[in-house]
Design goal:
It comes from Flavobacterium pokkalii. Keywords: Glycosidase, Hydrolase, Signal. InterPro entries: Cyc-maltodext_N, Cyclo-malto-dextrinase_C, GH, GH13_cat_dom, Glyco_hydro_b, Ig-like_fold, Ig_E-set. This is Alpha-amylase. It is globular and about 90 Å long. Helix 7 runs parallel beside helix 8, helix 10 packs antiparallel against helix 11 and helix 13 runs parallel beside helix 14. The protein is built from 16 helices and 26 strands. It has 617 residues and is an alpha/beta fold. It has three domains: 94 residues, Immunoglobulin-like (Sandwich); 320 residues, Alpha-Beta Barrel (TIM Barrel), CATH 3.20.20.80; 79 residues, Immunoglobulin-like. The strands form six sheets. It has an eight-stranded parallel sheet with strand order 16-15-14-13-10-9-18-17. A six-stranded antiparallel sheet has the order 19-20-21-26-23-24. Strand 19 and strand 20 form a beta hairpin.
Amino acid sequence: MKKAFFFFLILMHLAFAANAKNIDVYPTNWWVDMKTNSIQLLIRSTGEAFSSDYAGINYSGIQVLKTHQFSNKKYLAVDILISPEARPGTVSIEVIQNGKKQKINWTLNSRRTGNGTEYAQGVNSADFIDLIMVDRFSNGDVTNDRIKGMRDQSLDRNQMYDRHGGDLQGVINNLDYLQGLGITALWFTPIMENDMMNRTEHGYAITDHYKIDARYGGDAKYKELSEKLHQRGMKLIFDAVYNHFGLYHFLEQDQPENDWVHRWPEYTQTNYREQTLFDPYGAKSDQKKMSNGWFDKIMPDINQDNPYMANFLIQNCIWHIETFGIDGVRLDTYTYNDLNFANRCNQAILNEYPKMTIFGEIMVHGVANQTYFEQNNIDTPFKSNLPSVVDFQSLYYGIIPALTQPFGWTDGVNKLYYTLSSDFLSKNPMQKVLLLDNHDEHRFFSVVGKNVEKQKIGFQWLLTCRGIPQLYYGSEVLVKGFKDPDGLVRSDFPGGWATDTKNAFTGKGLTEDEKSTQDLVRKLANFRKTSSALKTGKMMHYVPVDGLYVYFRYDENQTIMCVMNTSTTEKEIDLQKYDERTADFTSARNVITEEKFNASTKTTIPAMKMWILELKK
């Protein structure tokens, strides 16, 4: 009898365990001693529906505040409060399915140590970011090129929009190169699971917020990369997408309610008009289309007014930071989010991680338009708390026209001067992220007509102007391409695959122009690491004259003079003309060439050249 009863208990345990496998909880775990201690668990059954909204937890330090059931009975929302007395352990959550109680194990962990010092450190003007598309950087593990059961089984480097096989192991293998180049922080386009039919190389159609894509190496490899970066004193930036997810996300395919994404009578795309959000004469219908319209038919637009959806997103970002040791957050398509939600999300992150850097993708036209979405000095009804932005204005209306337009009253390098002069609108101009190109922009080398000197000027500006410089992988070796029609902006990094004949990691097969550009970036970026003026110093610039633009980065310990000649003729340089910054200095050293000259002697800078001069007393 005792044996029969024992056997019965074993069967019940096995049945219970099997059932538990069909229930998922989001977030998948949490931590003790978090400021964010009021959590909303989203419990999802992939098997039987829940019979009621009952959810019981008998765990010291955890209190169930409220439960909610949806029209889709396979979901429950459970609000819990984790007290300061709660200790790490396995939490048993009890629910009812088909009239029977079922138990789910959910984990409460110890927190990471070093909030603000070992992770969540923030990214600042002392850093140099490299933006990498993991699928296009380096294939370090060929065994994960295709994953059985995933929808996209493409693998063809000859097709720009197929997968190419790059992974996180490939990044790990080349950390020496990246750090040697002067890079201090890595930002990847999203690497969460992207189980779509095609075009999964970019990562922006997420299908599971709580999984790192297995084709990149999964959660374990991402944690390994984070650890190796931090061991080197480098940082990790997380690309968060709140505006939309992929059509095959479980919250769309098996939606709790019909209002977790924005629904329209017929497919309605966003109008991409950020002006509708602040236009004093704008129509509400245009504003609604801007914020609630879909990016694409395969990317449902998330309804952040839905409190359950909003909680899901906010908790997920905090979960990523704590799980993987994130140091900075880049927010995709920021202008299309509900801005009140965005403020709430930003604040939740900063409450938990006070040193965290958050910067938004504000791909708009006009400095004031961009400034509206960040912390600013503008008197408007809505006030953003976003600390920083990707500074597309200094790209579109700054360095590009400076190097591609003839000099004029409002043209050429004067546009760069005008754009930077508008920094008075922003609270934190030194936190703006500068760029020459990225995964959505034409490669800068192609934009400047494959002119090597112009590319080099671009890099010298990038690494000396105010703000946080961001490189796009491969541009340091003159990777070229336009967005349309071939998508070559997302070409593979040379040397990332065993069959590559050109290898930018080692220098094999590079042309002299490619080597010299790479060397310039390496030398200047590493000089910048020890340059207090370039990392955190103030900036002063002078009105451009006949294509000659001069600006300074300076502090009490160092003065750097940057001379950009965008003219077609050489220009005379007289340091005495800039005596507000050059007084008392007797000599200057060219940081790139090491050439020295007397500060009292006039000299000439050749056409389409840039000098970076360290002034000496």
